[in-house]
Task: structure prediction
Amino acid sequence: MSFSSELRRVAVKAETRTHDIFVATVAAAADSIVNGSPVTGAPGQPVDTGALKASWQTTFESRTQALIATKSAYAIPNEEGIREDGGPYVQRSPVGGRHSVKQTIAGMPRLIAQATRDVTGGDA
Amino acid sequence: MFNHTAAVLALRAHLLTLSVCSTGSASLAATATGYTRTVGSFVTDGFVVGAEVVPAGFTDTTPRTITAVTATIMTVSGAVTAQSAAGGRSLSVTLPTQRAWENVDFTPTTGSPYVTEEYLPGAAQKITIGPFGEIEALPIYLPRIFVPSNTGRAAVSQYADAVLALFAPETTITVGADSLRVRGDVAPFLGQLLNLDAGFAVIPITIPLRYRTPNAL
Result:
């Protein structure tokens, strides 16, 4: 095997692993927002009817960009813990909580590290 | 050992040093509706409608909300005790004097800015080796400054930007023998402006932190 073909093989492997790590990180981030994560500390979404939890969608817009979003009207008040009428926010759901998006953003380096370990088996 | 209560108190003490804008020591007069000056500019100093101004050196030092501002005239909410011009006075915008700290009942006053805070302890992870290696938590501090609705974006943005500047990445806040550090890998960031039915607007502020302490067996 020539040096150039060996280099090409390593490059393809690296790009494949990078993409796998990206996909795993996006999946972990979405799971952290929706279901909570011990890695980020996010509590996940509260559940009444389950509509808020089900409203979160993940879209891969390109090989390097993904969108984790919801159109639910309850999402922002719940994320921020702010009631639109200004009253104190009271959580009624026994599961989930507030600020899962923020905690997921803050925990991204750990999610990436975890995804890297999962994909490479610690051989990154 | 982590002491998250001490961490909140340290973060709060740091937040209380917030300085948004000030005239500095100047010759100022008070009228029934606000304050005037003949030298300098309230606009250039950074005063905007919706912010709470704190007078110093006047007989009446009640904090009030700015309702209109020009270079030489600042109009505020409520009636002010008139005083002729004199030096050595100042007007400043700092952290709003109405404060809703965690788990303490609070009712906002319509037309007056107020501040709230939340603290998320965050997930922890042992990051150095050995039985007494360090544990690292990634807490998040969420100070929020609410301003009256219909005052435009200036005041709410100005407060939020001032908080971001106060908690710049790598800022270190001592908590007992340990320290909290404002993160730079995920630096403090702002959310979108939210208008509430209750007559207030707010820009959520998120301050990611790194808190390390030795493991205690």
Observations:
- The helical segments of chain A are 3-35, 51-55, 75-80, 100-106, 108-120.
- Strands of chain A lie at 57-60, 66-69.
- Chain A has five helices and two strands.
- The radius of gyration of chain A is 19 Å.
